[in-house]
Structure formats: structure tokens, C-alpha cells
Amino acid sequence: MLLSGELEWAKGYGDIFTLVKRAVKRSLGEHRMGLMLYLGNLPLSVGAFHPLGTNDIVLNRRLLKAAKSELKQKAHVFSILLHEYLHSLGYADERQVRGLTYKVCVENFGSEHPVVEAAITGPWVNLTQEDFAVMEQDLDLELVRDFERIDIGYII
Fold this sequence. Notes:
alpha+beta; 7 helices; 9% strand
């Protein structure tokens, strides 16, 4: 069953990340818990990053503002979170992670879905020259609440 309809109904980062985890579990049989998401004003050349050995993913809020539609924005968020989630699972090689991101997207959305396009092009395709001229002075990290939903009770 494809996840296309579920992505359209997703209301926020937590909903999208739940789909990311389902897709990875379905395609690769892997999962992990305990991640936190931060939004930050990163340089436009950086979509997001996961510092290895941490539970953090930092997503570039500036890139997300460039998406032309809500579905395209969700598609970019999905593909970026998927990419960083794969890093959090221990995949360090960028070429391998890009290939796995594409594979997971195709297997869970079909080859014609905007998520697959986002996995191939990245969010930079939507930027204009003016976007690159605007520079933020501060990283301004913001913790996203209710990002990871855990079904079992335990203490972190």
C-alpha cells in the first residue's frame, strides 16, 4: 500500500516523520527511536543535518519557505527527514544515503509522486537568486514539539 494519501493528510512534522519511519521499516526493516527535530536558519546550501552520535536532526527552515505548494513542501520535508533519519541509523556515506532515500521513496510512493522528485532534486530547485541574497544573522534553533510519537511507555 502506498503512502501517498497519508502524506497529503499529514498535519505537521510529527505526522510526516511517522510516515518516514513506516517507510524505512517497510523498505529496509530498520528503525530507531528518540530523535528530536530542530528548525534553524542554516546556510541555503545545507538542507538539514544530523550530528552523528546524537538524537538531533536540524532542518533548514529557510528552504521550506521556497516550496510552491503544500504538497511539494511536505514532499521536501519527507525526503529531507528520510535522508537524515537514514544517517541516524548509521548510514554515513552520502552517496549510499541518497540512493536509499530514492529507493524508499519509490517503493512507498510510486515513481511519479512529488516525494520521488524531491528526493532527486532536493529543495534547492525552488529557490530564486533573491533567496540566496537573504542571509540570516542567527541560527535561531527552535525545538519542534510532538515530533516523535512513541507507542510504548518508557523513560528517556
